[in-house]
Fold Isopropylmalate dehydrogenase-like domain-containing protein.
Amino acid sequence: FASHGGSIKATLFPGDGIGPEIAESVKQIFDAVQVQVEWDIHFVGKTVDPKTGSFITWDSMESVRQCGIGLKGPMATPIGKGHKSLNLTLRKELGLYANVRPCLSIPGYKTRYDNVDLVTIRENTEGEYSGLEHQVVKGVVESLKIITRTASKRVAEYAFHYAKLHGRKRVSAIHKANIMKKTDGLFLQCCREVAEKYPDLVYEEVIIDNCCMMLVKNPGLFDVLCMPNLYGDIISDLCAGLIGGLGLTPSGNIGDNGLALMEAVHGTAPDIAGKNLANPTAILLSSVMMLQHLKMTEPADMIHKSILKTIAEGKYRTGDLGGSATCTDYTKALIDNLGK
Ligand code: ATP
Ligand code: MG
């Protein structure tokens, strides 16, 4: 990672809507903890950059490539034709092949389950989302699901690497290979091959429909889940719901050579933007993931503990968690709780 006078340089995309407010919260907490990170701040452009074909500029892309690490707020997709979606641009340009979402119950914030502690790892580049759809004849359309050995191996390698690094015990490959014998079959085959290299981790294969039932009945049954694109899209949202929803769920997008772009999973929340009502927890937890990825465990733990403590105390919670604290009140409470 690029360092600068002892600090690590990281790209920050505040994004749109509530993005700048929640990004400000991250900046304040990083300052309070004196985290050795220097932000290179980039906004989404106002015109299409011909080099990226999107509103995200080439300069911004270069920043992430050079820093190798970044944090992203939600981005509004500009309406109109002739440009690529922002998320697609990021994913393609930066080769972000895996999406990682840790879902951890927040003590004190009551949801249906208290014991959720799982991580979904989703293949992010192919499968049903390859964008290959066409009409065969009138009234018949076709969509191609592409599964490659390269992409499946890559995401499986990452899932097992992540599991080992984070002291996890089990990796479950989620599939429907009983019906999609070739595509999901290849995905499973790749997971199995990687599993052999990790004898200390328990490996299992779970059919997607059964997985859904098990997750809603007892999420404690799972640890790390590794999935092709479509299943991952659905299951990762299901898991976010298990711990209390959008305002609390962080995520990471992983590319080659350790490149990582972390982001909150929620959108721009236009209904509350600019009103100081947003919950910055998801992006803060994403920044914690970023620090963990940089192996800056100490500040990561400090921020994480302060978030858990503040929410558990319940005095300062934002509206989405049933409280009446503003984003700035909550941020102040987090800073007060650092190291306590
Ligand atoms: P986008 O088009 O950018 O996806 P959206 O209209 O789909 O935006 P989301 O951002 O996905 O909206 O949010 C859905 C709901 O959840 C909204 O009512 C929003 O206010 C709320 N919400 C989302 N994120 C947060 C947050 N961080 N804090 C508080 N409320 C949030
Ligand atoms: Mg949305």
Q: What stands out?
A: The chain has a mean pLDDT of 94.
